[in-house]
Design goal:
This protein has 108 residues and is mainly alpha-helical. It contains 3 helices and no strands.
Length: 108
């Protein structure tokens, strides 16, 4: 009869160790995600500031656009596609990041 409670106690200890290891792994993975989102957020802020500056000076935006088209049109098209794809991805993940940040702050 004593054997069953001992087995359960050992199983419980093993599960608790596994849980602790999983939590530590999750913490490390979330730190990586946090660093990645901080870099993305910095890039977004820089781009937002640049767009705001160009909106205040539309003539400057036209001049930069014309200059870029004169230099290398094929590179501009490729860069524009990449920028558009990046922006579309950002629109999808930005709400998820905000939700994650708000839940992280509410946990603290």
């Amino acid at each position: 009869m004593k054997r069953r409670p001992d087995q359960l106690a050992l199983r419980r200890e093993a599960l608790l160790l596994k849980i602790r290891a999983q939590r530590q792994l999750l913490t490390l993975q979330l730190q990586d995600v946090k660093q990645s989102t901080e870099v993305a957020e910095l890039g977004y802020q820089c781009a937002s500031n640049a767009v705001g500056a160009l909106r205040r000076r539309p003539l400057l935006a036209v001049a930069i656009g014309a200059g870029l088209l004169l230099v290398k049109p094929s590179k501009i098209v490729s860069l524009s596609r990449t920028a558009l794809n990046t922006w579309q991805i950002w629109k999808i993940i930005a709400p998820l990041i905000k939700e994650w940040k708000s839940s992280a702050h509410s946990d603290e």
